């Protein structure tokens, strides 16, 4: 408790409260002063509560504070679980009630400020159901809910933008890159201006080009409008097709049916719709309203822990048990009277359930039928898009098949013609190859003759001259055509400009009046802007000072919070060690030998004995190893000598075998010589 009071005093001595309290002065505060202090803290969180509590009744003060604490989701501690006791302590200014509230509020002031700000816009106003029957009230309530959802989305986007934090280095790089691009574009524009200034009538040409660009933009907009109108026409044709299909279906239904059957169908539909309107939909609506009411009550209540949920489950089980007992008593009490009607009640309930089930099946069947109709319309529209016509039926399909047969015969004839043409094409290709070969041979002969006469390349240069002259004539014709086209375009543009000037003359007159108004408004805007700039400069200076103060307070808060968390961790470690020591003492003092064995001291003593026995065994083993070390080393030395001796014997044996093999080879060579 002393740590809690010390924390409260430290927070109240800081910004923005500056109360200059110590533990003694804070503890000596009266109930009204404590309530005013709590109200000041709440006023810092929500400025609407910054009032003097002496100017309002205690009940109003308690109600206002309880409503704000409920919005902030404050839950009283376990020692004050009764809400009436908590309310009474809040009215009287009881220290055991107000101190925990102050501690909780000062711990998370920034978070609670944000929650109080959001509560101003997100706490929904409850409108009674009878008022919502009015159309205007229902529309306003709907707009209110839509605005609330829009505020939620905007607040989320704002928080995301605050946390995203664009890098200043990236922004600077982008700005430098854009400045470089701007300089390059300025240089390009200057170069183009210098090029254009050398051309005659360049101003007029620029004006014509500007008008041409405007006309192209207008052409693009008109093309876009044309495409939109085509889409609208396509959708209208689809609607028309659907309406025609529905009309055909209605005609078929009218032709095949009689007035009596139509009246019967209408009566059945009316009965079904009346059942839905009078029984089913009101019952479902009532259940939805009840569930929404209970959900709103659950949301309005403060957050609950697992222990509270367990208590509620126990209460629910007790109430269910009491309800079952009361039902059994009632059945035992009224059994002889109700026995006559029990059978009829059961039958009525079974029939009502069957009726509801059939109504649901009928509704599902209608929805399925509507969905299949929509799918059918979609498929027909797709088929019309692919084929370009409606799906054929009956005689139309037969006529279509006959047309396809005639087209098939025509296709076969054309295919034969194509085969003949391909054969002829092969012959012509072969003749072309032969002619090319002959042409190459003639060219070689001609080149040889030119080389003999000393005029090599004459035919090639003549062909090049003829080709260049032909190209030049074509270019001259193209230049002439382009000049004619440009002159016609200039004439058209001049006429269009004249028409536009004539049509824009009244608009220009109106524009002059609007320019005068614009000048007056700009003067007024400049005056207002000067006032705004002066006011904004003052507010900006105040904001910078406040930001510095807030930054210092945030740093202090972070440091204090880290100290608080470190102290809490140390406290938890000490509590765990103390708990372990208590459990160890309890197990050590316990008369039960099983409990004693669980004690850590007993476990460690057993482990020490085991380690001592193991050490004794290892020392004995070490002693044996030391005693047998000398003989063992001698034995190893003997084995190593024996190994060297055997290795020498093996080498001598191998040398002897090699010498014997060489002697045999020499003897065989001598025998061969003697034979020769």
Automatic annotation (TrEMBL):
Tell me the ranges covered by the IFT81 calponin homology domain, including all copies: 3-126
Give a yes or no for keyword Acetylation in this entry.
yes
User: Does the keyword Cytoplasm belong to this entry?
Assistant: yes
Compartments where found? Cytoplasm, Cytoskeleton, Cilium basal body
This protein's GO CC annotations: ciliary basal body; intraciliary transport particle B
**Gene Ontology molecular functions:** tubulin binding
Q: Which InterPro entries match?
A: IFT81 (IPR029600), IFT81_CH (IPR041146), IFT81_N_sf (IPR043016)
Which UniProt keywords are present, listed alphabetically?
Acetylation, Cell projection, Cilium, Cilium biogenesis/degradation, Coiled coil, Cytoplasm, Cytoskeleton, Differentiation, Phosphoprotein, Spermatogenesis
Biological processes, Gene Ontology terms:
cell differentiation; cilium assembly; intraciliary transport; spermatogenesis
What protein family does this chain belong to? Belongs to the IFT81 family.
The protein depicted here goes by the name: Intraflagellar transport protein 81 homolog
* Native species: Cochlearius cochlearius
């Amino acid at each position: 408790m002393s740590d809690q009071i010390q924390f409260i005093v430290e927070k109240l001595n800081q910004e923005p409260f500056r109360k200059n309290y110590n533990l003694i002065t804070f503890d000596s505060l009266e109930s009204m002063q404590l309530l005013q202090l709590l109200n000041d803290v709440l006023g810092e969180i929500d400025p609407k509560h910054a009032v003097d509590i002496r100017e309002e009744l205690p009940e109003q003060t308690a109600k206002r504070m309880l409503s704000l604490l409920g919005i902030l989701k404050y839950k009283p501690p376990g020692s004050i679980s009764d809400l009436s006791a908590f309310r009474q302590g809040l009215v009287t200014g009881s220290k055991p009630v107000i101190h925990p509230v102050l501690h909780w509020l000062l711990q998370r002031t920034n978070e609670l400020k944000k929650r109080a700000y959001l509560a101003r816009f997100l706490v929904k106003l409850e409108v009674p159901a009878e008022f919502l029957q009015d159309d205007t009230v229902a529309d306003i309530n709907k707009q209110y809910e839509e605005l609330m959802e829009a505020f939620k989305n905007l607040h989320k986007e704002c928080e995301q933008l605050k946390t995203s934090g664009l890098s200043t280095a990236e922004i600077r790089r982008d700005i430098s890159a854009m400045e470089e691009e701007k300089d390059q574009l300025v240089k390009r524009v200057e170069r183009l201006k210098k090029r254009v200034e050398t051309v005659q009538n360049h101003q007029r040409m620029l004006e014509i080009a500007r008008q041409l660009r405007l006309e192209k933009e207008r052409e693009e907009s008109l093309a876009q409008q044309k495409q939109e109108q085509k889409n609208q026409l396509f959708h209208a044709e689809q609607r028309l097709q659907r309406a025609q299909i529905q009309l055909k279906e209605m005609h078929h239904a009218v032709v095949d049916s009689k007035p009596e059957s139509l009246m019967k169908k209408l009566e059945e539909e009316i009965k079904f719709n009346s059942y839905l309107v009078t029984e089913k939909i009101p019952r479902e609506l009532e259940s939805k309203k009840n569930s929404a009411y209970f959900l709103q009550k659950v949301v309005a209540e403060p957050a609950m822990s697992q222990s509270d949920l367990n208590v509620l489950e126990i209460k629910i089980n007790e109430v269910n048990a009491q309800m079952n007992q009361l039902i059994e008593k009632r059945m035992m009490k009224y059994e002889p009277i109700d026995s006559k009607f029990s059978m009829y009640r059961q039958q009525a309930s079974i029939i009502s359930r069957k009726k509801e089930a059939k109504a649901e099946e009928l509704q599902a069947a209608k929805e399925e039928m509507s969905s299949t109709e929509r799918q059918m319309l979609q498929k027909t529209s797709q088929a019309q898009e692919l084929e370009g016509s409606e799906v054929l039926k009956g005689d139309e399909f037969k006529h279509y098949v006959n047309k396809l047969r005639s087209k098939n015969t025509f296709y076969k004839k054309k295919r034969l013609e194509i085969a003949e043409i391909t054969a002829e094409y092969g012959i012509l290709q072969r003749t072309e190859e032969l002619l090319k070969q002959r042409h190459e041979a003639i060219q070689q002969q001609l080149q040889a003759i030119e080389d003999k006469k000393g005029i090599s390349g004459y035919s090639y240069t003549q062909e090049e001259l003829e080709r260049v002259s032909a190209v030049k004539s074509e270019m001259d014709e193209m230049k002439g055509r382009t000049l004619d086209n440009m002159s016609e375009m200039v004439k058209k543009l001049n006429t269009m400009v004249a028409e536009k000037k004539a049509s824009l003359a009244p608009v220009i007159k109106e524009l002059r009046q609007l320019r005068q108004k614009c000048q007056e408004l700009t003067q007024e805007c400049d005056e207002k802007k000067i006032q705004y700039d002066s006011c904004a400069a003052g507010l900006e200076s105040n904001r910078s000072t406040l930001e510095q103060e807030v930054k210092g307070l945030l740093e202090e808060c972070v440091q204090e919070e880290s100290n608080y968390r470190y102290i809490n961790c140390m406290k938890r470690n000490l509590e765990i060690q103390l708990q372990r020591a208590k459990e160890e003492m309890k197990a050590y003092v316990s008369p039960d030998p099983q409990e004693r064995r669980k004690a850590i001291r007993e476990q460690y003593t057993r482990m020490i004995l085991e380690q001592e026995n193991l050490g004794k065994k290892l020392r004995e083993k070490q002693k044996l190893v030391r005693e047998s070390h000398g003989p063992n080393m001698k034995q190893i030395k003997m084995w190593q000598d024996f190994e060297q001796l055997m290795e020498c014997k093996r080498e001598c044996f191998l040398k002897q075998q090699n010498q014997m093999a060489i002697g045999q080879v020499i003897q065989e060579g001598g025998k061969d010589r003697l034979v020769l």
